[in-house]
Amino acid sequence: MEKNYRIAVLPGDGIGTEVMHAAQAVLEAVQPRVGRALALEWLPAGAQHYLDSGVALPETTLRRCESADAILFGAMGLPHVRGADGTEIIPQLDLRMHFDLYAGVRPIRTFRGLPTPLSNPKAEHIDLVLVRESTEGLFYARGRGDVRGDQEVFDTMRITRHGTTRICEFAFRLAARRAERLGRAGRVTNVDKANVFASMAFFRKVFEEVAARHPAVAADSGYVDAMALNLVMKPWTYDVLVTENMFGDILSDLIAALVGGMGMAPSGDIGDRHALFQPAHGTAPDIAGQGKANPTAMLLSAAMMLEWLAERSGDTALADGAALIERAVEQVFATGQVRPMEFGGMHSTADITRAATNALRAA
Amino acid sequence: MEKNYRIAVLPGDGIGTEVMHAAQAVLEAVQPRVGRALALEWLPAGAQHYLDSGVALPETTLRRCESADAILFGAMGLPHVRGADGTEIIPQLDLRMHFDLYAGVRPIRTFRGLPTPLSNPKAEHIDLVLVRESTEGLFYARGRGDVRGDQEVFDTMRITRHGTTRICEFAFRLAARRAERLGRAGRVTNVDKANVFASMAFFRKVFEEVAARHPAVAADSGYVDAMALNLVMKPWTYDVLVTENMFGDILSDLIAALVGGMGMAPSGDIGDRHALFQPAHGTAPDIAGQGKANPTAMLLSAAMMLEWLAERSGDTALADGAALIERAVEQVFATGQVRPMEFGGMHSTADITRAATNALRAA
Ligand SMILES: CC(C)[C@H](C(=O)O)[C@@H](O)C(=O)O
Ligand SMILES: CC(C)[C@H](C(=O)O)[C@@H](O)C(=O)O
Fold first, then answer.
1. CATH of domain B117-258
2. Which residue of A has its CA nearest to B255?
3. Mapping DSSP to helix (H, G, I), strand (E, B) and coil, where does residue B258 land?
4. For testing contact with chain B, the best of A78, A89, A120, A229 (most B CBs within 10 A)
5. CATH number of B1-114+274-363: 3.40.50.880, 3.40.640.10, 3.40.718.10, 3.40.50.300?
6. Ligand 2 cavity residues, CB under 6 Å
7. Which of A26, A190, B13, B154 could bridge across to A221 with cysteines, CB 3.0–4.6 Å?
8. Minimal CA–CA distance to A293: which of A267, A264, A263?
9. Nearest chain B Cα distance for residue A295, angstroms
10. What is the per-residue pLDDT across A111-152, written as a single tens digit (0 to 9) for each?
């Protein structure tokens, strides 16, 4: 093996652990194919760990993440595990802040063989990436809520030039890379509420400044309400979306629905020095422990991780690994024979994992 | 004629005036059928009026609205007409505050004969009402943005016990009325982000207190991101939704998409003393003046107005009028022969208006 990479693995709570086993199996199958070794180090963190130890995200786990080449994350949080202000214990939000993972990258696309909830045949061509700013916006308010007795609560959102510039730059660079790969012009659509909020008018202004520096990529803007409608009515017309933290949270789930739900939606939380990859779904306590979870989003997140590592290190073998996983997942569903349970299918986490590793080994 | 009602009419900008003519025609057809007279008083206001006079919402217009039995509103705003902080001139937001119209009532349902963007045949059964809190939440920040040089902007959202209690009470009363009319159990689903924000944890707490006072209506809560997904994947499972101002803005457009877009989505902005009814769409400058606008949302808004006046006054003839309009609209589309342009049809504003008034007269 030429090169080794160390991956910090945070399986977390509920189905997080189950889908992480799937990722591990697929990453093990991919290593010999590309001549690279990935050392996966499983680390404790999460709501259950908080219950057991009083700490959700131990210092040693943070330090191992710090020195790892990338972080692979399952899912964390349990509805009944809450802090003093009534909000949940959510280590993924702490990780975004701690490692300054400002770009929440949430790609979705339709997979042949799996139904979409949309009737228009153009839904086949859905292939878009939502880029969510993940370190400020309304989430700036987290832990800072101004609670005045039992009468009123204020939460403040913050938009900075620095934060907006870097997320918009990220989106334009991504669109340019996609344009090259897909062999067509790139486009970034900014989603805001500039008609009502000063912070959002500022966001749009900065977006337009950044857009002017990227003349090869088309740029436009829409209001978040109209975009929620457009994303249901004509999602196949969009390429890259960029938006504030809270809007990105909502719209990324919306677009995941267009391709069949959270089980198909991978994500990356990417900063300038660190990156974390996780399925967009949560811990799903209702089905945890039953082997029913769809591991696809987790497998695609592992592929995103390899892609990111390849870009960062220049080691193209890892990009080949990412492509192998993507193609294996495509093959699993293409014939219509394997179908996850949330699509009305019968196939368990283990079934889908096995199908993917088989496809990968046969490729 | 037994009774007279005075309606303040604010046609506004762009297609606002065009669809208001449709509403006028239909309301004229309905009056002899129910033995009531509606005096429609057209009043100036809007972005164009702001350009012409320097005032978007003249004092005399406000006073006529104040003394009217109800306000019927077209659409207002033009993208290039903006205030000093870069946000738009939007009189409808001022009206919500001025008349304390705290409940944004946004019903949607599928109409036989018109396609929906969803492939599941259950989409036929979509019939839900989103209740949006319209006087606080993130919109509290409007006009209060804290702009710090060209570097950062803060916008603050406010959730009060008073505001949350009254919007939740409104939602439960509405669900109880719908349950009676539809002959089944009612349900209110609260949409928040209680896992992250103190204000939203407070909103959920107050919702649960109100729910406890309405044991006959089922109550549950979901996070706004998950709900954006659920509303695409299984909208037919919901009845009444209640949510914060900004979330309500986004989700009401999302659900309008499920039944074919804003042209089908009426709305009411309802307070304890006043109420305003308007189509959920905007001024659509791109098609203004061409007679292409779908007047359905405006007609259904006029029906909502009659319904509200009936409830308020106890004059059931007006409820009959509302039902007549609703049934006329249903008939227009049921055979599939009349189809608005945004559904790929050929029918103009005038065509649809004529079909509706004919159906109403023949009923
Ligand atoms: C778990 C939750 C706090 C989180 C968020 O709101 O960011 C999740 O929904 C996401 O989108 O990553
Ligand atoms: C025009 C706009 C400011 C308004 C809002 O955001 O409330 C509209 O989208 C609505 O939903 O009534």
1. 3.40.718.10
2. A229
3. helix
4. A229
5. 3.40.718.10
6. A 195-196, 225; B 77, 90, 93, 249
7. A190
8. A263
9. 18
10. 999 999 999 999 999 999 999 999 999 999 999 999 999 999
